[in-house]
Specification:
The complex is a heterodimer of chains A (457) and B (253). Chain A has 457 residues and is mainly α. Chain A contains 15 helices and two strands. Chain A folds into two domains: 148 residues, no CATH class; 235 residues, MetI-like fold, CATH 1.10.3720.10. In chain B, the strands form two sheets. In chain B, strands 6-7-8-3-9-10 form a six-stranded mixed β-sheet, with helices on both faces. Chain B is globular and about 55 Å long. Classes of the chains: A mainly alpha (457), B alpha/beta (253).
Amino acid sequence: MFFWSLVLIAVGIFSSFIYGRSRIKLNSKKQGTKSKSLPNYYAQYVLMWCLFPALIVYFSWAIFQEQIIQNIVISNFEYIEGAVYNEGLLLAEIRNVANNPSFADGKSIEIINAASHYSSLKQISQISFYTSIIIMMLLGALYASQKLKPEFHVQHTIERYIQYILIFCSSVAIFTTIGIVFSLIFESLRFFAEVSISEFLFSTEWYPFIPIREGQTAAEGSFGAVPIFAGTFLVMVVAMCVAAPLGLLTAIYLAEYASQRVRKIVKPLLEILAGIPTIVYGFFAFVSVAPFVKAFGQSIGIDASPTSALAAGMVMGVMIIPFISSLSDDVINSVPQSLREASLGIGANKAETIKKVILPAALPGIVGAFLLAISRAIGETMIVVVAAGTAPNLTGNPFENVTTVTVQIVVALIGDQEFDNPRTLSAFALGLVLFVITLFLNIIALQIVKRYRERYE
Amino acid sequence: MSNSKILANGVDVYYGSKQALFGISMDIKEKEVTALIGPSGCGKSTFLRCINRMNDLIEICKVSGSIKVDNEEIISEKTDVVSLRSKIGMVFQKPNPFPKSIFDNVAYGPTIHGLVDSKNELEEIVHSSLKKAGLFDEVKDRLNEPGTSLSGGQQQRLCIARAIAVNPEIILMDEPCSALDPIATAIIEELIDELRLNYTIIIVTHSMQQAARVSQKTCFFHLGELIETGETNKIFTNPDNTKTQDYITGRFG
């Protein structure tokens, strides 16, 4: 139904465009004056007046239709005395029967009645949907065609409409973000209604299993997130130990030593590294790096688990190298050439120039690059899911299993879970913490980078 | 050839396939100010940057011919560029102090060349360099403030102090006053006059008055060729070449 309505709208806007174009030509011929704007602008004007009302109808149907029909069906449902109904299941059953009559066998009469009610409502809705689209398009086109006079400065109006469209598009992303933040906050509040904030932030026991049924003998769950934060921190530190030196030295090589030709080849290659799907990195970490780490640990007498903070962190470090190298390279490049010349002109060699002049000058930007890389590392999920393990160990030993915030969110949401117990809700609280941390890191990093830019431009 | 400090012979410079300098030969005397003048793009800066091998920084730039500093060939693979540049200081068009303190700016050269053994010695060099650059009295109370906080003219004098802190014999100046106001320019010109007693100075300038005021020798470049070279007085009053005549009287350039 929605597909054919799109075809209908397409036909509508096409014909409105043609109509508007020929109408303005006719009008200006009749008056013997030239129109103030080009005929195409008048045509676009009619088109917009035809399109937007139709889209409003389209989206209101897409959003509300199902809900309204379901409400009507449920409120008219003939409940049988004594029977117990689960509303969600009931609706699913009614819809099934309505969409596929062969399911009707063996269903009770009230369900079959409701299903036919549902189908007839659907049909009414469909007919009124098409008619209202057509009516709205006609009304819009009619209103617009009233205004098609040669002395009408239509392109001012079009400019304004375009501005509205642009504002709308940019606000979609903003409102989505706001929506996500609010849902995080509200779901987290539900979580904190059952688990105290101090337990969550300061207790060291993470055992997120709670009895689902009465009388189940599972232990009382505990939600101390410290081991999770510690694990996240540990993996991040390992990753930065790998990525910071490698990325920075790569950037120095690219910016100061590499010839233009090498740079042109190496930089895109590094950026490809950033484009590898993280699950592939995770796979690599689990299959190749983790066994190596285990063997290495055994060779120096440390008992390493098959998945470890070290394996995940190392691979994550490789993943964020391009972030650091690419950003730092840009920063080092934007250090003015005059400083290089000044230093070399005094007789400093290249290494001294880099160490004493260029890096100090580029330091704020490099720190910014590091912070962005850290926030990326903290938010990274797939590598740690596959290669870091899921055990909430409070440990500083990178050869051990650890778990991270992102992994625990995945664990909490896997499986058939309703959002009514602390175990699943903990995902939102963890997500909120993650969000706040990365938000702050990003803000600080961007501030540093910005201040640095201002200094040199 | 007795007190020849720099002796250039048939210097050609190419940027890629484009030739920028055509067989420049020049003899620069010790403890004199030599001004290089000429219209924009005539190659005077390019020539200046050959003398301390600054053109090495430009990948596509090729220099051939011979330049001897104190009778030592410097256009050669074997030249020790670092010691060459410590012997030849350079001051650039735009003041370019490091984003460090005033003290550290001047101390940079002596430190990397290991010229000092103690903190006191370093302090002495920094102070005397600032004095020689005529900046000490203005900044002596704020040596720890960043060099970039000074005014344009002060920054340029800081750069001169930084250059003379490593005790060079030659100072190259690439339009050192083009970014400065007339008062700061006058101060720098006076300074150049004082520095002449101890250093050999080559200055590229767009201002013919400046060349006339500060230099003893003047070289006129045009389209990559050295047209005429001689005593400043003579170049500005009675040049041999009609192109020089035309340029200094403002008929082109």
